[in-house]
Amino acid sequence: MTIARIPLTTLLRLDALACAVMGAGLALGAGPLARLTALPEGLLIGAGVALLPVAAFIVLVARGTIPLRTGARMVVLGNLGWVLASLGLLASGWGAPNALGQGFVAVQALAVAALAALEHRALGREACAAAT
After folding, report:
1. 59-116, pLDDT tens digit by residue?
2. How far apart are CA 58 and CA 12, in angstroms?
3. Pair 26, 85: CB distance under 8 Å
4. How far apart (Å, rounded) are the C-alpha atoms in residues 49 and 99?
5. What are the b/e assignments for 43-63, b being 16+ CB within 10 Å?
6. Could you tell me which of 80, 75, 72 has the C-alpha nearest to residue 113?
7. 7: alpha, beta or left? (left if phi > 0; alpha if psi -120 to 50)
């Protein structure tokens, strides 16, 4: 199986895990991370806490508790919103992150964008399969 053929539910589970790990890491490690990156500690805590219910929502989508296609579309849109907010943070200069902070924000935004693209592609495959 190539990376482009990973099932949507697997991608959603990976997304939920990434949100939970990143959320916990940001929330619990905000102080040291803020000192390393010059990102505001409050921003890191807020972002981390915000990711935890997102992870729970994605788990519900992956399990089928929420209709898969509708839920997956919401996840993809949410991921794109996260990427845009991350890029907006960098463009605004708010918080004045240092080079490590800028790299941290950029790399996680790229990872989220890649995951959103894979989920979007898998969603298209799901729709095609349902139509046949």
Report:
1. 999 999 989 999 999 999 999 999 999 999 999 978 899 999 999 999 999 999 999 9
2. 6
3. no
4. 24
5. bbbebbeebbebbebbbebbe
6. 80
7. beta
**Which residues are CB-contacts of 101 (< 8 A; sequence separation ≥ 6)?**
36, 37, 38, 39, 95
What string of H, E and C letters represents the secondary structure of 49-72? HHHHHHHHHHHHHHHCCCCHHHHH
* CA 64 to the chain's CA centroid: 19
Cα 44 to Cα 114: distance, rounded to the nearest angstrom: 22
> For the chain, what are the domain ranges?
3-127
Contact 90, 105 (CB under 8 A): yes
Q: Given this model, what pLDDT does residue 13 score?
A: 98
